[in-house]
Amino acid sequence: MSRGRREHVPSRPTWRCRACGIAWPCSPAKLRLLAAYREARPALLVHLATLYAQAEADLPAPARGGQAVDRYRRFVGWVGRRGGR
Question: Are strands 10-11 and 16-17 parallel, antiparallel or unpaired?
Fold first, then answer.
């Protein structure tokens, strides 16, 4: 990491991006993760599911079922099935 440039990583316990302040994973974080796990989509899903479980422990419980689904989509569901695999 270069000086003055912050990485797009989560800040716990809020799970907001340290660099841009929006809900993590932000778009730059997603792009970085997709590039890092380009040949290992299952490993990316395991990594994100682990972070999702940690976030569930840190963040307040959702008031409604829809919010729980939104949180899952935020952490894991965005990966999708690109590449047909």
Answer: antiparallel
